[in-house]
Amino acid sequence: MKLYVKIALFVVLFIAFSGILAALIMFNKKHTDTAKAKPDFVVTAIVLQKEFEDNEAAASARYINKIIEVTGSIVSITRSDTTNTNISLKTGNDMSSVICASRSIVDPSKFNAGEEITLRGECSGFLMDVLLKNCAVLVKRK
Amino acid sequence: MKRFFLFVFFLTIVLAADAQKYMTKNGYIGFFSHTPMEDIKADNNQVVGAIDIATGELVFQALIKSFHFDRALMEEHFNENYMESDKFPKSVFKGKITNLASVDFTKPGSYDVTVEGDLTIHDVTNKISAKGTIEVVSGGINANSKFKIVPEYYKIAIPGVVRDKIDKDLTVTVAMKYTPVATK
């Protein structure tokens, strides 16, 4: 086999292999690990909800798709199915809270209403409440 | 913002009325697609749902971005390519139980219902009808339904390359656990 044929063969194989590898990596891409990710914003639940209530468009542009570290007092804990737990945080408005969805909470009974908690998650937007997904619990204080 | 105040306004009316209204902010809507090539499942546990047992009216609201897929890449494609969730962040259903008389809200039990209404996804509204159950339990009302939707009816373009991997009609599952809206 001529040398240039070998080189050409090697190049083609290399490209094909990297292509497959890249596709596999992309396909198996994991969700952002919010326990380790650097937050774009560090806020309290009260401030975050207020910003959405005062100006939803501006707050949406600022926070949606961003990683937010939010601190607040727990209003309620809802285990929605076997894997998802929603933790609602108290805000200045009784009818609106910050609801954090987490799939990393194994034992929701460890959390109680009234406790102060810090979570980090990705902001999905605002319905009646500010919604965060993919949340990780960082600190829990009594 | 305006919508939020409308919702608050709506809730205030609800609060003023007696306990005819039930709601949840932790409702579930999921969809499932099965093809020989791949099974795809997405879950949303942050659905707002309200039901008025006097009139049989139902409302659901969900953020598209709240749908969770096991594969991050799929979630990304779902949001960016198919649902365009930055442009159309919400999905809404407004409808009514058509056979309200067959549900006895004072008696615990499971009742079969049919719900008809307008489903808005991707800024396209279609009339849909679905069968489901209303379950009267102590302290609340549970609502469950399963129905099919066709993505193309909502102008959701799925490229030919992946069309075979996604079911022609997706099975949507709705599961709500309503509690009475607190009267003050």
Quick one: CATH superfamily of the largest domain in chain A?
Answer: Nucleic acid-binding proteins
Average pLDDT reading of chain B = 90
Output mean pLDDT of chain A.
93
List the uncertain runs of chain B: none
What characterizes the major β-sheet of chain A?
A: 5 strands, mixed, barrel
Question: Helical residue percent of chain B?
Answer: 10-25%
* Count of discrete structural domains of chain B: 1
Largest protein interface, residues of each chain: A-B, 35 and 25 residues
Q: Please, what is the CATH homologous superfamily of chain B?
A: Lipid/polyisoprenoid-binding, YceI-like
Number of strands of chain A: 6
| Total E-strand runs of chain B | 9
SSE topology string of chain A = HEHHEEEEE
Query: What is the tally of helical segments of chain A?
Result: 3
How much of the sequence of chain B is in beta strands? Answer: over 45%
Spell the H/E element sequence of chain B: HEEEEHEEEEHE
Which terms would index this structure?
heterodimer; A: 142 residues; alpha/beta; OB fold (Dihydrolipoamide Acetyltransferase, E2P); 3 helices; 35% strand; B: 184 residues; alpha+beta; Lipocalin; 51% strand
Written account of the structure:
- With 142 residues, chain A is an alpha/beta fold.
- Chain A has two domains: 1-30; 41-141, Nucleic acid-binding proteins (OB fold (Dihydrolipoamide Acetyltransferase, E2P), Beta Barrel), CATH 2.40.50.140.
- Chain A has helices at 3-27, 45-54, 56-63, and strands at 41-44, 67-79, 85-89, 98-102, 116-126, 130-141.
- Chain A is elongated, with a radius of gyration of 22 Å.
- The model of chain A has no long low-confidence stretch (mean pLDDT 93).
- In chain B, strands 1-2-3-5-6-7-8-9 form an eight-stranded antiparallel β-barrel.
- Chain B is α+β, with helices and mostly antiparallel strands and 184 residues long.
- The interface between A and B is medium-sized, with 35 and 25 residues.
